[in-house]
Amino acid sequence: MQRYIGLFLLIGMFSCKTKSVVVTPVVPVDTTNVATAKMIAQYYTKITPKFNSISIKSNVKYADERMSQNVNAEIRILKDQKIMVLVRVLGITMAKAYITPDKVQYYEKIGGKYFDGNFEVLSRWLGTDLDFQKIQKLLIGEALDTLNSQTGNVKSDMGFYKIETDSNQGVQKQFYIDSNDLLLKKELIFQTEKDRMLQILYPTFATHEKAFLPENVLIEASQGTSKTNIEMEYKSVTFDEELTFPYQVPNGYEPIIISKTE
């Protein structure tokens, strides 16, 4: 599902080829609508982070039909401004991504490749709408879409608030918010006609003074019989330290060229 293993580890969790869509909301009756609006307001009140910056050290496990790989990753976030992900093997930095709202830069030592572009180019290549906020939300355990009382049909489902949307392009989305702690536990994006599915799980959260953050992020992307799994385990988290975001492509690396037809 991805051409470069390092790039997949960093941002390939979005590459299950689900196109950007305009959601056609299923409008509930008034009483349900009021309850839904209240629940969603409580959700955002609870999960809105209070930090300016965050540094996360994690273990990452990647597996598909051809290979499996375990690496360490350091994630640095200056909220709403910058994200840097450093992938290390045996303490050696093997790949680095530097992401801002306007630009995506990346290089990996294996193969000596680098990418320098924007989200428009990257979204076309991956086949799905991608932006800075989606990456930030995924890393800190927030719903990828902005939820509101008109997002879709809300049901009670086995201890969860299940928010389900449908679209006229066949892309369905489901968000599962725990009815007890109001934290997101699962997201599903799927296209039944094309047998494509992306599932994001947040089994447990840790309570920090400045945020509720996932302890694990489990991602499964599938198309037909092809499956890719990514498991991220957050080992340590620090808030509001002064972070640096150094990025420079080593000499001699070759650019990853994405043509308009890809």
TrEMBL record:
Pfam families: DUF4292. Keywords: Lipoprotein. InterPro entries: DUF4292. The keyword Lipoprotein applies. This is Probable lipoprotein. It comes from Flavobacterium branchiophilum (strain FL-15). The lineage of its organism: Bacteria, Pseudomonadati, Bacteroidota, Flavobacteriia, Flavobacteriales.
